[in-house]
Design a protein that fits this description.
Layout (H helix, E strand, L loop, with lengths): L6 E6 L7 H12 L4 E6 L7 H11 L8 E5 L10 E5 L4 E5 L5 H6 L4 E4 L15 H14 L23 E2 L5 E8 L5 E6 H8 L5 E5 L2 E3 L14 E5 L4 E6 L4 H5 L6 E6 L1
Parallel strand pairs: 1-2, 1-3, 3-5
Antiparallel strand pairs: 4-5, 4-6, 7-8, 8-9, 8-14, 9-13, 10-11, 10-14, 12-13
Helix pairs in contact: 1-4
């Protein structure tokens, strides 16, 4: 990996009301004024590690190689939880060891992980409540200037993980999944991906989706395949099956939420 990084991204639950995100950017640019900082999202629900992990997983690969992705959704700040840097072929990730890197570690081939303990990188005073400012931001900035990944701290062989719920195939052939994420438009994103549906279609093209009290008889190509206000099943940009409403919110229309179930099977 080339030594100079040019982009740092941020995923936080800090919101936009307070100055926390701005302060992190100030720390970064004070160390490296030429770095480009991109906000992926600062509106993660407070302390929602799963949401942060999903947003990171569904967005990180669309950035230039050598991007440094920083995630500060950190309920354990001030405790003995570790701060990690995960290195893949193309990217670096800085995050707390609370499971937020789970999907990246599972997806990427042979990632290298180190605990960030080199205090030379940190601000001179470390608070118990704002490691995003005092540890995450300056570490990312120094890495963006070519600081060696190997000098961050010792190698780590195991990290804390959270599980992405897996669909279950019933004896009758029904694939039982669940809603794993609800985006800002009210789209219900499930844990059923395109490969799973393709395998079902090897037996029959006639598939039905039962979600809440609705039954959908096909997977559409776009929202416009149905009328305004109608419920539609499509594959979203993340590659997972979504339940949506054309010009509306599936969350509100169907009164469903994260963790609710759905079934996909033959007509």
């Amino acid at each position: 990996m080339p030594k100079i990084q040019s982009v740092i991204t941020l995923i936080t639950d800090f919101g936009l009301q307070d100055g926390y995100v701005g302060v992190m950017k100030g720390v970064i640019t004070k160390i490296n004024p030429s770095v480009k900082i991109i906000d992926i999202s600062n509106n993660i629900e407070s302390q929602d590690i799963f949401q942060a992990a999903y947003v990171l997983y569904s967005s990180y690969a669309y950035f230039p190689k050598r991007t440094i992705h920083v995630v500060v959704v950190d309920p354990g700040v001030g405790s003995k939880r570790r701060v990690l840097c995960l290195k893949t072929k193309d990217y670096l990730f800085i995050a707390p060891d609370n499971g937020v890197l789970s999907f990246i570690a599972a997806r990427e081939e042979s990632p290298s992980i180190r605990e960030i303990t080199n205090k030379k990188l940190f601000l001179s005073e470390i608070s118990d409540t704002f490691h995003g400012r005092d540890i995450f931001a300056p570490t990312a900035a120094h890495l963006s200037k070519g600081f060696s990944y190997k000098d961050l701290g010792k190698r780590v062989s195991k990290i804390n993980e959270i599980d992405l719920p897996k669909p279950i195939r019933s004896p009758g052939g029904v694939l039982k999944g669940e809603i794993i994420y609800v985006d800002g438009f009210g789209n219900l994103i499930t844990n059923i991906n395109r490969d799973m549906v393709d395998r079902l279609r090897e037996k029959s093209e006639d598939l039905a989706i039962v979600v809440g009290r609705r039954k959908l008889n096909k997977i559409s190509n776009s929202y416009a395949d149905v009328g305004v206000g109608d419920v539609v099943a499509i594959f979203g940009s993340s590659g997972y099956l979504e339940i949506s409403v054309n010009h509306g919110s599936a969350r509100d229309v169907l009164n469903l939420k994260k963790g609710d179930k759905l079934g996909l099977g033959y007509e």
